Amino acid sequence: MPVNLIAVQPSDLLPVPGVRVGVAEAGIRKANRRDLTLIELAAGSRVAGVFTLNRFCAAPVQLCKQHIAGGDVRALVINTGVANAGTGEQGLADAHATCVAVGRTLGVAPEQVLPFSTGVILEALPVDRLIAGLPAAHADLREDGWFDAAHAIMTTDTLAKAVSRQVEIGGRTVTLTGISKGAGMIKPNMATMLGFLACDAAVSQALLDALTKEAADLSFNSITVDGDTSTNDSFIVVATGQAGNAEIADPLGSDFHALRDAVIDVSIRLAQAIVRDGEGATKFMTIAVEGGLDVVECRKVAYAIGQSPLVKTAFFASDPNLGRILAAIGYAGIQDLDVGGLRVWLGTAAEEVLVAELGGRAPTYREEDGVRVMKEAEITVRVDLGRGRARATVWTCDFSYDYVKINADYRS
Amino acid sequence: MPVNLIAVQPSDLLPVPGVRVGVAEAGIRKANRRDLTLIELAAGSRVAGVFTLNRFCAAPVQLCKQHIAGGDVRALVINTGVANAGTGEQGLADAHATCVAVGRTLGVAPEQVLPFSTGVILEALPVDRLIAGLPAAHADLREDGWFDAAHAIMTTDTLAKAVSRQVEIGGRTVTLTGISKGAGMIKPNMATMLGFLACDAAVSQALLDALTKEAADLSFNSITVDGDTSTNDSFIVVATGQAGNAEIADPLGSDFHALRDAVIDVSIRLAQAIVRDGEGATKFMTIAVEGGLDVVECRKVAYAIGQSPLVKTAFFASDPNLGRILAAIGYAGIQDLDVGGLRVWLGTAAEEVLVAELGGRAPTYREEDGVRVMKEAEITVRVDLGRGRARATVWTCDFSYDYVKINADYRS
Questions:
Q1: How many domains does chain A have?
Q2: DSSP string spanning B174-231?
Q3: Confidence (pLDDT) at B218
Q4: Interface contact flag, A229 B330, Cβ < 8 Å
Q5: How confident is the model at residue B212 (pLDDT cuts 50, 70, 90)?
Q6: Average pLDDT, chain A
Q7: Which pLDDT tens digit goes with each residue over B271-316?
Q8: What is the pLDDT of residues A57-95, one digit of tens each?
Q9: Catalytic residue at B192?
Q10: Is there a domain that residue B5 lies in?
Q11: Which domain holds residue B32?
Q12: Would A137 be classed as within a structural domain?
């Protein structure tokens, strides 16, 4: 059961001028399901991306990095079913063949195509079936194709993940629409997280690159379901430049700040949707760490809490288990942390309870207050390290019977 | 159900000349259970220890570090029930009062006593009950008290953990006996791992210190149940010097090598017993990484595999899920790892199957071979990084429904 994740409606999603989206049933791994998505970008679009750091980086990710560096990207092609990871030279050849076929279909060069795959790893991509499905995806291209695409990129996701919003920039209305997928892991292998965000703003390549990196760090790189990192993770931001605003090139200007806020907002909502749909999730946890010397140490503490199986099972049990949270802070790796100086709160939208200070349980803390907070589905753990002004936030979900069941039983 | 961990028998454990052990029921947290252990060391004993790196280091650990630095330790006192962690100044006062009482009982100074506590954290130590239990523990002191002590230090452990062996050094028989406890975590908080190893060898303090550190790294610091680190973890090695061997002071001599091998062997068996008794464990996994540039990167890879919830649930399901293992290697943090150069085997005592090479599935690998290996209770994952001569081994267990159940349900 996703945690407070509502099924997206077609009317929730706004077309982005300069982007057309089509889907098809290519039978990549299973028949009768939409498993192929084609995204066509108008000439002049700018594209930026960030990719997995896993050394078993999949073949399509390797091609994406090359093609995005060349600039002038005109199409994205996404298949589910097979991740084309751990497939060696054949995998690279298959990903390249995909780009050639898409290029031929759309009348662009193979180097102008970014390929994405998600699904089982260590299996060959059935590239013939993928290519055979391209004409149908091509015929389906339309500006309002986002809703179908959000569904076509799903794997173990239980709900499609998509967000649109608009923002005024330089007197023009800029539209942003994004889709994402990922839910912990994917049968029978790793969970790939994919995020695609398109807007029609005009923005310089340098600022788009920087913004994409920042947005990824604050969204997809700030969530954790089980701490594992996929071979295929990718996050792409497209700016078609068709909104008619003056090109944004000043990182200190108000136009950039408006675009930045909107891109980060949409990215965070797309990333949070992945956690809300985390495998077996029953609670959505925000781990907000402040008062650190730098962001790195704040993230260390947030991830230590958010990835601790003991903390996550305690949240599943609605147990305000302060000891497990404090212990996770203690082993997060800040060598000179003065535990006497930190404070910890458990909170909901309605209240916040100080649970720890001065190296132990807060004198004012009553167990029934913690129990009341822990019954909610959305809980914030706020930690003040009391040694600086940096902060970082990580989102995660709890660890349930169903997590083990989903990940242990998939072949039965 | 512990994995291949056999209940220790009293006759398995050898007295160590110079060490007397006694236990008592002090009612620390529950009545009618042995929860207090006293270990008396003869004059002239040498003691070395390594302790948790958790910043929420418990009060007794803080005192231990001070007292062990002063030398001439004559007693260890261990209580279960309450960990005396996250207890601030009162906790330090309580641990100190414990040492004063033990010193008075045995006629030594408080600074010659090392206190250890394991149990719930954030609760005050009932030091009056502990002290009231000391006369009974004192009256119980005997050379063959190890069997009872192995049981008295248990918390969530399902079986006592104890090992003895003898080794010839300089024409004399040296006896080693050790006990340990720990099983993932302890109601309602963190799992404390405690290990106590005593021998009657004569060895210099400098070599004992170095050996204790090395043995801890190769044993208690090479196991993982859930990746969490306790506030109270401690490992102590005692050498009473009563075996009559010439004092070992040459780190290159054969006497030291014999002692070293024996201490490391006993330490590894004590540490492995903790994994075999891991909460909900159904399989015992050895992660052996070789061919690294240094031990640090080998340990990174071994821990990435051994701590991955996806790998651990796959082992629970007896699923030879190669993709999850490769992905864990890929995100272990070796930035310049050439995945094309590594090889991975799954093995049992009877056979070893090459499953991956050249960046993907090994051409010779057949799924039925992997399935056969994964059905065993003891499985080795061997990884050759193919870039150097360093190696490291980590032991872990699988991740089952019962792990979640034990850690989510303890208050029900």
A1: 2
A2: EEEEEEEE--SEETTEEPPPEEEEEE---B-HHHHHHHHHHHHHHTGGGEESSS---S
A3: 94
A4: yes
A5: very high
A6: 92
A7: 999 999 887 889 999 999 999 999 999 999 999 999 888 888 889 9
A8: 899 999 999 999 999 999 999 999 999 998 888 999 999
A9: yes
A10: no
A11: 10-276
A12: yes
Q: Are B54 and A331 an interchain contact pair (Cβ–Cβ within 8 Å)?
A: yes
User: For the domain that residue A241 is a member of, what is the CATH number?
Assistant: 3.60.70.12
Q: How far does the CA of residue B147 sit from the closest CA of chain A (Å)? A: 31
Nearest by CB to A226, from B190, B309, B317: name it.
Answer: B309
B380 marked as binding residue: no
Positive or negative torsion for Cα B205, B206, B211, B212: positive
Whether residues B272 and B293 share a domain: the answer is: no
Is B254 annotated as ligand-binding? Answer: no
3-class DSSP state of B36 = strand
User: Does the annotation flag B105 for ligand binding?
Assistant: no
Task: Look up tokens 């909107």; give the residue.
Answer: A262
Q: In this structure, are A92 and A219 located in the same domain?
A: yes
Q: Is residue A2 part of a domain?
A: no
CB-based contact B175:B16 (threshold 8 Å) = yes
Question: B309 and A313: CB-CB below 8 Å?
Answer: no
Q: Supply the ipTM of this predicted assembly.
A: 0.78
Write down the catalytic residue from B192, B212, B240, B396.
Answer: B192
- For A350-373, the pLDDT digits (tens) are 999 999 998 888 999 999 999 999
Q: Given A218, A243, A276, which residue is the final one in a domain?
A: A276
A407 marked ligand binding residue:
yes
Provide the CATH number for the domain around residue A328.
3.10.20.340
A411 pLDDT exceeds 60? no
In a domain, B194, yes or no: yes
Binning pLDDT at 50, 70 and 90, where does residue A187 land?
very low
Among the partner-chain residues A226, A331, A358, the one whose CB lies closest to the CB of B229 is A331
Residue found by looking up tokens 């248990």 in the block: B154
Q: A370: number of CA atoms within 13 Å, CB side?
A: 22
Q: Out of B85, B327, B340, whose CB is closest to A230?
A: B327
For B67-88, write each residue's pLDDT tens digit: 999 999 999 999 999 999 988 8
Q: Which of A381-385, B13-17, B144-148, B355-359 has the lowest mean pLDDT?
A: B355-359
What is the residue type of B361?
Answer: R
Task: Output the CA torsion sign for A180, A184, A188, A193.
Answer: positive
List of chain B residues whose C-beta atoms are within 8 Å of the C-beta of residue A53: 331
